[in-house]
Write the structure tokens for this entry.
Amino acid sequence: MAIEPVTAGRAARILGVAAAVTAAVALLTPLAGPASISLPKAFAGVWPDAQMFFGVRWPRTLLAMLCGGALGISGALFQALLRDPLATPYTLGVSSGASLGAVAAICLGLHSVAGLPGLWVSALGGAGAVLAIVLMVAAEGRRMSSFTLLLAGVTINSIVSSLIMLLHNLASVGQSFAIVHWLMGNIDPVDAGTLGWLAVLILPLSLGLCVLARQWNLMAVGEEWAASRGVSPQALLVGGYVAGSVLTAAVTAVTGPIGFVGLVVPHALRLRFGGDHRLLMPLSFLGGGAFLAICDTLARSLLAVEIPVSVVTALAGGPCFIALLRSRRRSLWL
Amino acid sequence: MNVRFELDRVGMRYGDAQVLSEVTLAFERPEMVALTGPNGAGKSTLLGIMAGLRGGHGGTCLLNGRAAGEWRRRDYARVVAFVPQSLKLDFPFTAEQVVLMGRTPYAGGLFESPGDWAAVRRAMEVTDTLAFRERDFRSLSGGERQRVVLASALAQEPRALLLDEPTTFLDLEHQVAIYALLRQLARDGLLVISVTHDLNLAAVYSDRVVALQRGRLVADAPPCDALSVERIRQIFGVEAEWLRRSDGKAWISYGN
């Protein structure tokens, strides 16, 4: 199947549709739930519809969208940087670092640090430490390449994962429950302030990544290819890794590791729209956001008890993705 | 604008291995150059240095009077284009998208200008790749891929084109077609430097042959001098003989 080139007009058309769909998801998913809400009443400020919509369910939808968007776009970014279609935001260890930090906070009973929730601070600290170590190891002695980055990231990822298991093993039963709950990943409601700082971090970074789309195209082909076309692969590799890691760390600190979004969303979009990052990056953000918001809605409304959203992303995303693959006449676009 | 490469005692070490030493050379006008020599002679390293892809070398390699490090990367990429031995893609880009990437050194924004599209069209016309511009690069044959990669380099509108064994994986017909195209590009004003192991392609299509052996420059002359029977024995360690075809053109036979 022929894929048309990405021109400004085509990009505007496709992104316009994607933004409209995402906005619709943002407005409709808060309506699902035990108590029914009327959208017109909510926007008219009628009690209790407005309070339930804007006070409870809408922030949760927005949180899911921000986190899903960040995971989607950093998945697309890491796949391009590592030239590995199976890369995810978690491949290079940053989320394991965040998890280790969170698990340590749970084990130490760290409730708050400087007025902020101890879990977040500790998770961000863990992610930052892993980020710094990976960069140091990857750059050791010679110039960094996607290969040394991958090697360093994967190695440190497994070291950190075993440290998590060690801590888990030493934890009490109560702590162990909290650890498992955290490691499953959950969209727990957060206050407006948290939502605000997440948005301030995620939106500009994601926009910046979209603006560099032509550079990611070059990096997705190869570092030498990029260098011979006038960009610095070193700078893009380091900058991209740091930006993607900050996105992933911020999300993981708040929600825990939520799998599958960063892998399946960019993949599905690439199947349909081709490899050009000028479409792929913004679409991965919008698509990841909409996907996670829908999955979270299913997670809290399918059964009487809330199920972990990671279970839903895999259970809903996996079969959809396989169906998408099978519907392609040509397996080439994998 | 013309293009001028001046290499003065260029050397390169990888660890303990001295892969290039004391190479002094100049390229001062559009011509077709074959860069040859046995495996490990330093050909690709030399080409990489000239393409601005390998730093940390000894001596100086100046493009129009300035070392690669003194250039803005995108300005360098507007003068010098590089074609690798082969290109493998992990993601679905169309042939046209691969060629479009050659316009990045001219990028003024997120999308290509009409001028960019015109350059891409010209490059795809010259390389005869327009017919499959909308196809996935990975679905193309080896010959088609290499022409697309060449088109991407030509879309950079360079003054010098450096190719690292561009025809290694190609069948005879495509080898000849690529070399005929490269020679035509040289006639039209491009400095073309191509690494090759095929002495006949070098002899027939190039104006000048540069040969390296164990990192040193051992020949720099027109094909008939650089590829004399003694030189071939000395550089490659094989016996060779110049023969004449029925149409009067010369070719080299080697081995027994």
Remarks:
- The interface with chain A takes residues 51-53, 73-78, 80-82, 84, 87, 89-94, 96-98, 100-102, 104-105, 107, 110-112, 134-136, 138-139, 156 of chain B (CB under 8 Å).
